[in-house]
Amino acid sequence: MIGRLAGRIDYKGSDQVMIDVKGVGYVVHVSERTLSALPPVGEAAALYTDLLVREDLLQLYGFITMQEKEWHRLLTTVQGIGAKASMAILGALGPDGVSRAIALGDATAVRAAPGVGPKIAQRVVNELRDKAPALMAMGGMQGHAASGDHGALIEEGADAPAAPRRAPPPPPAAAAQSEALSALSNLGYGPAEAAGAVAQAAGAGEGGDTATLIRAALKLLAPKD
């Protein structure tokens, strides 16, 4: 299984890139969002990858973050969601947007992806809602595929491309949501209700820091008179 590729971008298409790894070109299918986040042709890049294996087909799909890759793997477990539909959802919403939409049960947001109808969007929300808290937390803890060195697929040598630039740490908003989820869990709230409250608070623009998110989420979780 190819879990990560690091090398030099040789080509960028409308929905794929070719990454040269020590003279071998790997064609990797990516979402529009991932494509726009990658550096120009000729520069070093790295992607987490998932390999689709069929009787007559081998295709690599690439992701900037492990959170995005894990959402892809979960989305494709839903009946009616193949790799193409999963990439459309991730391209439209991004991994954080998918986390929020599913935590809130917002099937309308999932329908924003091209080719995803109302029934399938509702099925995605229903089947994956319990998985949202763990992946929302992952967004605040993990880095990008381009972080660090080339990994196991690149050996030292004159032909090896320059190491990719180190990626910045996770955005403060993602880290704050992860910390708020942890705090609410410690207070005894269930993962699904905590994730829904944090997602709703974040979507309402209740500040990007952890303390503000926790206060806003607690207000949402408080018993209504």
TrEMBL record:
Signal peptide: none annotated. Residues 176-222 form the Holliday junction DNA helicase RuvA C-terminal domain. Pfam families: HHH_5, RuvA_C, RuvA_N. GO terms for cellular component: cytoplasm; Holliday junction helicase complex; Holliday junction resolvase complex. Residues 1-62 form the DNA helicase Holliday junction RuvA type domain. Residues 174-225 are annotated as: Domain III. Residues 1-64 are annotated as: Domain I. One of its GO terms (molecular function) is four-way junction helicase activity. It is found in: Cytoplasm. Belongs to the RuvA family. This is Holliday junction branch migration complex subunit RuvA. It comes from Profundibacterium mesophilum KAUST100406-0324. The gene is ruvA.
